[in-house]
Structure formats: C-alpha cells, structure tokens
Amino acid sequence: MKLAIVLSSNRDEGGFSAKLLKKIVEFCAGQASVDAIWLNQYRIELCDADNKCSQMNCSINDDMTLLSERIIAADAVLYIPVVHAYGTCSRMQSFIERLGYGFMRPQGRPMQNKLAIVAVVGRRYSHESVFSQMILNLLLNRCIIVGSGFPPTFRSELGSPDNDHEAWSSLKTSLLRTISFHQLLSPNTTASLNKTIHLEEVP
Length: 203
Known about the structure:
The chain is of the alpha/beta class. It has a single domain, classed as Rossmann fold. The chain is 39% helix and 16% strand. A five-stranded parallel beta sheet has the order 2-1-3-6-8, with helices on both faces. A two-stranded antiparallel ribbon has the order 4-5.
C-alpha cells in the first residue's frame, strides 16, 4: 500500500509534525510505503471561486496539478493539519479549498473511494474542529474515512508524539485498519465501486 501524507507545518525537521512523520514511517515499514508531501514546498494560490471549475479544469497557474498527481497515485491519504488561531493553518486551508471546492470536480473526483485518515497537531485548543473540517473535505472528495473510535489529536506542547500515548494509539489503530482495508479492497473491488457509484454533483 502507498500512503500519501500531507503535512502543513512550516517548521524544520525538529518540529512536532516531522517527529510524527518519522514515527509513522517507522511504524509502516514493511506494511506500506510513505510519500511525505510538505505543502510548504509547493506554490498554492488562493481559490478565486469563479465556479468555472464546475465545467472545465481550474485555470489558476500554481502547483496544484503536481500535488494532486501525488495524492491520486497513492492508495490512501493521511492529512496532518496544524492548528493556528483556533482553526487550520492558512496553507492547509488554501490546499483543501482548491482540492475540495473545484480542482477535482472537472476530473470526476479521482479521490473517490480512496482510503483517508486525519491526525491533528496543535497546542491544546480546537483540535476537534480542525479534525471535523478535514473529514468534511475528504467526504467532499468522496473518500472512504478510516478511524479508530476517537480522533488522533496530538498536543504539541508535550514535545514529542511519544509523550501523547492516547493520540499515537489512535493513529496506529487507524493506520493498521487502513492497511487491512486496502488488503480487503482489491483493485478489482475498488474499480467496481468507482464504476457503479455515480452520484450527481451537488449544485
């Protein structure tokens, strides 16, 4: 299984998100390959909300095509947003607006039936709000949400994911379930789902 991990942090390798990524890569070794996508390495313009993307490909000239290609190529996706000012950070906000609002729409929602997980990093507030926002965006792209019973919400003031045992336990369970679901959903099964489920676009 190939897992695309989308990280929104601007911090260096010593940051909490980087430490979490390292734990995920170690945990997935032998079970899944990881494609770490750092949003700060791409140019993501603001959505212009012109609604032309309902009928044609987005005309904004930035790196969203490169980003979307990496995500589409994966079997599953993990969003790791960072909480800023009681909401998701602006870089992740721009990314999900472009990806969820219209960029994927004229392409026939190619993330449909892709397995998806969310883990939130922040100090102590608004984790659940950001988690819900990410889940809704993934649902907008018709992903299959995988969870563990409660959201993996990491408190960065603890210094390391190793110190947030409950959050890491939740994320590990979500990762294991995602790997198991991928094994159950063979390529033929996924292709069949994509072929038989035809939903009208919401106006």
